[in-house]
Amino acid sequence: MRLVKGAGLILPILFLVSLGIAYAQGEGELLLDDFEGAISGGLEGTVDYGSGNGSSLGVAASPEVKYHGQQALEVSFDALSGGYMWVARGYGLDVKGAGAWLVEPKDINFTNYNAVAFCIYGANTGIQVAMDLVDSGSEYWRALIDDNFTGWKEFVIPFADFFARGDWQPQGADKNAELNFPIRVFQFEPLPVGKGKLYFDYVRMVKK
């Protein structure tokens, strides 16, 4: 009887697991990060973030405002003129716990994808939000989004639409003007001048 009950439970469980994987990734896409689990800062935290020149920001988990799963990433910011900030997840950062993607870069076949997708809960602040990718040569690539909407909105940005940042690159970046794979970090930056709260969720690699 125990063997029969066990066998009867295995199929439903496997079916539910397979449904979850299909929902999380979908056809032609790979879920990188949906910000589940602990959201915290500091060197022992799970998000690499900071600010300077008078700007400030904070991060938190948002179980109330979310697009996918149990929570989203909440970013409260005050972006002053001349200031800067960043909110990053990925690998090779000062905050090692920010390497919390569901799939590590070394295990991703990037030739299967040509765009990055994510969702933002806008506040109609009128500012621009930068989305950066960091490639294998530590070069930062940027795309810009206008926060001119309210509520959840999905963005799908082809890799070809990202441009190498001209305002700043870290020391040691190869600066070869080529987006070299694997990508190892993504980050968001509300740009000056503005103040408010944004939410981010459901970051994926997709085939557009």
* CATH fold field value: Jelly Rolls
Structural class by secondary-structure content: mainly beta
List segments where confidence is low: pLDDT < 50 over at least 5 consecutive residues: 1-24
**Mean pLDDT across all residues, rounded?**
90
In angstroms, what separates the terminal alpha carbons? 50 Å
Largest sheet: 6 strands, antiparallel
Quickly give the CATH architecture. Sandwich
- In CATH, the homologous superfamily goes by the name Galactose-binding lectin
Q: CATH class, anyone?
A: Mainly Beta
SSE topology:
Layout: H1 2-25, E1 29-33, E2 48-52, E3 56-62, E4 72-79, E5 84-90, E6 115-123, E7 128-134, E8 140-146, E9 150-158, E10 163-164, E11 185-190, E12 194-206
Antiparallel strand pairs: 1-12, 2-5, 3-4, 4-12, 5-11, 6-9, 6-12, 7-8, 7-11, 8-10
Description:
With 208 residues, the protein is mainly beta. The chain has a single domain, classed as Jelly Rolls, CATH 2.60.120. A hairpin with a 5-residue loop joins strand 7 and strand 8. The protein is globular, with a radius of gyration of 19 Å.
